[in-house]
Amino acid sequence: MALKWNEIESYAKDWVKEAGESIKASFQKKLTVQTKSNENDLVTNMDKETEQFFIGKIRNTFPEHRIMGEEEEHDQLTDLKGVIWIIDPIDGTMNFIHQQRNFAISIGIYENGIGKIGLIYDVVHDELYCGIKGRGAYVNETKLPKLNGVAVKKAIVGVNATWVTENDKIDPAILGRLVKDVRGTRSYGSAAIEMAYVATGRVDAYISLRLAPWDYAAGAIIVEELGGVITKLTGAPINLLEKSSILVAKPDLHKEIIDHYVTNFKEQTK
Ligand code: 2AM
Ligand code: CA
Predict the structure, then answer these.
(1) 189 CB near ligand 1 (under 6 Å)
(2) What is the pTM of this model?
(3) How far is the CA of 3 from the centre of ligand 1 (A)?
């Protein structure tokens, strides 16, 4: 039976809005905060409850679909066959805890590895970014224009200061040179929000050296639908089954960064 993508889109949007209401309501309640891999890697009861909410809805409505999510429960995927929902219930958990803003729900729905629907919901601003394969991208009801090129010297780039100080992923000098040459840098602390900002042109590029598929699965669909480019920082294609570096940018800018700035960067493979 042919998949009804309009139906999937409609359910996904309704669930994202419903989850957003619960997250907003949680601002009035006490949060339970736990640490994961290190003391800055945080998870709250709301991350877990929101992920459970989506898992329950998907399993009930689309039992044949598979799920990859940031928190505890998800299918251990070793391939991208079929329909897969890649879910980050709260991207920017640290912002959610400390600022109650600059976080988002991020959901990418893929079929056999091809991005079909990308949703990023900036809950606090009530901005739902949506990319549908072949149909463009929207913020709420407004269609977003295609992304034009921009030169490095006129670009605003989203990048965390971590990557221009001593770290275990990249020689700080590589991005240091780029940071000196661009018009400005910004860091919002949520990969999903920063990719949504690439889509709207608020920033021209976003770079991270350590992202998981649930951080970028939705953003990739939205940005690519607008003519933007997403690869690893080496220029190699992204792989939804692994963590990696990410460079998301307007097309010309992506090329200039790859050709002139990251030529000495080799990503470590585990
Ligand atoms: P999170 O808030 O859902 O954990 C912050 O710079 C951005 O990087 C956020 O999108 C954050 O997602 C993500 N991030 C932080 N640490 C990460 C890690 N160890 N692996 C993958 N993504 C990470
Ligand atoms: Ca995340």
Answers:
(1) yes
(2) 0.97
(3) 32
Q: State the closest ligand 1 atom to the C-alpha of 103, by its place in the atom list counted from 1.
A: 2
What the block records as the tokens of 177 is: 């040179």
Ligand 1 atom closest to Cα of residue 92:
2
| Separation of CA 211 and ligand 1 centre (Å) | 6
Cβ–ligand 1 distance for 210 under 6 Å, the answer yes
Amino acid at residue number 176: G
- The CATH code for residues 5-143 is 3.30.540.10
Mutate to test the pocket of ligand 1, among 99, 163, 190 (most ligand atoms within 8 A of CB): 190
Burial class (CB in 10 A: 0-12, 13-18, 19+), 101: middle
In the chain, where are the structural domains located? 5-143, 152-260
Continuous segment of H or E residues that includes residue 32: none
126-181 pLDDT per residue, tens = 999 999 999 999 999 999 999 999 999 999 999 999 999 999 999 999 999 999 99
Are 108 and 221 in contact by the 8 Å Cβ rule? The answer is: yes
Q: Is the CB of 122 under 6 A from ligand 1?
A: no
Tens of pLDDT, residue by residue over 27-71, are: 999 999 999 889 999 999 999 999 999 999 999 999 999 999 988
Domain 152-260 has CATH 3.40.190.80: yes
Angle in degrees, 0-180, between the axes of helices 213-225 and 191-200, rounded to the nearest 10: 10
* Residue nearest (by alpha carbon) to ligand 1 atom 3: 91
**Residues 76, 261: Cα–Cα separation, whole Å:** 36
For β-strands 104-111 and 114-122, DSSP reports them as antiparallel
